[in-house]
């Protein structure tokens, strides 16, 4: 991965421009065509983009599975989990605008009963429930985020990613699996280290290129055999 100063400066500009764009769409929102379906987003919500495509394409949900989507944004991954056959999907985020968008999209796709949308900072609002599948499209970069919109792309002191791996085991069933999004301009080495330190294997299962500088990945994460608990 080329994380040279020139490339990172380019990524900085691109991400800042996207954050501005997220904020200035009309109050009644904007509709995007994404992977053959329409999703509506309200101002201050992260838009559907290539970053989640590898995860959606590799996501396998067995009929009757329960799914937790952490950092749901507009609800794209959660909605596709519903299409995949999940019996229950809990989509969580800290951004009120994202929750509004996700709730709207759940209803528009006919999954208002299957998909619950809830405010939660990572797992704070989950309670004691455990899930067969946990999906996460967390901010890729260790960079200070000045507001809730920036937090969709930047992770101040890498706290969100660190806490995710430290805490996720409590909410994952013993034989559960995690689908985790990332990118070539993100902190992949740090994520791999966090996964290993907390008792997980991590394998890339899909990738998609947005352009000549940006590529996105999906990782399948499972407990290492000696850390699995019945």
From TrEMBL:
Top-level class of the enzyme under EC nomenclature: transferase
Keyword Transferase among UniProt keywords: yes
Organism: Duganella violaceipulchra
One example of a Gene Ontology biological process annotation: methylation
Entry EC number(s): 2.1.1.297
One CC-aspect GO term: eRF1 methyltransferase complex
InterPro entries named in the record: Euk-Arch_PrmC-MTase (IPR052190), Small_mtfrase_dom (IPR007848)
UniProt key word Translocase: no
Keyword annotations: Methyltransferase, S-adenosyl-L-methionine, Transferase
Superkingdom of the source species: Bacteria
Gene Ontology molecular function, alphabetical: peptide chain release factor N(5)-glutamine methyltransferase activity
Segments forming domain Methyltransferase small: 52-191
Protein name: Methyltransferase domain-containing protein
């Amino acid at each position: 991965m080329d994380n040279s100063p020139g490339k990172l400066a380019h990524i900085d500009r691109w991400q800042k421009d996207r954050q501005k764009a997220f904020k200035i769409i009309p109050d009644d929102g904007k509709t995007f065509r994404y992977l053959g379906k329409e999703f509506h987003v309200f101002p201050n919500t992260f838009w559907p983009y290539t970053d989640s495509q590898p995860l959606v394409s590799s996501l396998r949900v067995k009929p009757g599975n329960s799914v937790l989507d952490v950092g749901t944004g507009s609800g794209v991954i959660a909605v596709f989990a519903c299409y995949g056959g999940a019996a229950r999907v809990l989509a969580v985020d800290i951004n009120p605008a994202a929750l509004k968008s996700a709730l709207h999209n759940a209803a528009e796709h006919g999954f208002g009963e299957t998909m619950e949308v809830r405010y939660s900072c990572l797992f704070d609002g989950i309670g004691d429930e455990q899930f067969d599948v946990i999906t996460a499209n967390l901010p890729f970069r260790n960079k200070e985020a000045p507001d809730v919109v920036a937090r969709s792309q930047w992770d101040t002191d890498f706290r969100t990613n660190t806490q995710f791996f430290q805490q996720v085991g409590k909410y994952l069933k013993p034989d559960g699996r995690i689908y985790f999004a990332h990118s070539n301009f993100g902190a992949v080495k740090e994520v791999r280290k966090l996964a290993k330190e907390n008792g997980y294997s991590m394998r890339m299962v899909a990738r998609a290129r947005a352009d000549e500088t940006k590529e996105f990945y999906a990782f399948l994460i499972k407990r290492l055999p000696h850390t699995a608990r019945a």
